[in-house]
Amino acid sequence: MALERTLSIIKPDAVAKNAIGAIVGRFEAAGLKVVAAKLKQLSRKEAEGFYAVHKERPFFGALVEFMISGPVFIQALEGEGAIQKNRDLMGATDPKKADKGTIRADFAESIDANAVHGSDSAENAAIEIAYFFATTEVVSA
Ligand code: RTP
Ligand code: MG
């Protein structure tokens, strides 16, 4: 498996419940390394730009409102197969369908307030990391 980087966002619902540490702990326990991180209040423009691929979907407005409802914790994670590993740790988009023990099963309330975002491909991971971090802000040990 290749060494990869992926973008993770701990969404406003999970930040509001003081779950940043618990969720980062799961990434670290699974062998993913935090190589960039920041807490940020997204502007409407930033949230719309980030989720631009979904702009024609019926849930786009609600998704943007939710993503700007409070601060988010944004990280670049690095590790072997990091993109799929993060998606596996997150669980299904709808927490009701997420496997037991996944982040969404344990921390998410609904398909809208679903605790975390994770890049879904290598191409999107590169785009999403560059969307939030300058190259000098991503550090490999
Ligand atoms: P994410 O991008 O946030 O990591 O989530 P995902 O890949 O599992 O899901 P995606 O299809 O990319 O959708 C992005 C976010 O939009 C919200 N959503 N709502 N009401 C709905 O049917 C619906 N579908 C998606 C979710 O909050 C999802 O995380
Ligand atoms: Mg997605």
Automatic annotation (TrEMBL):
Family stated for the protein in its record: Belongs to the NDK family.
Record lineage: Bacteria, Pseudomonadati, Pseudomonadota, Gammaproteobacteria, Lysobacterales
Localization in the cell: Cytoplasm
Subunit structure: Homotetramer.
Any GO BP: GTP biosynthetic process
Name of the protein described by the UniProt record: Nucleoside diphosphate kinase
Cofactor(s) the protein requires to work: Mg(2+)
Species per Swiss-Prot/TrEMBL record: Chiayiivirga flava
UniProt-listed Pfam families: NDK
Protein function: Major role in the synthesis of nucleoside triphosphates other than ATP. The ATP gamma phosphate is transferred to the NDP beta phosphate via a ping-pong mechanism, using a phosphorylated active-site intermediate.
NCBIfam families given in the database record: PRK00668.1
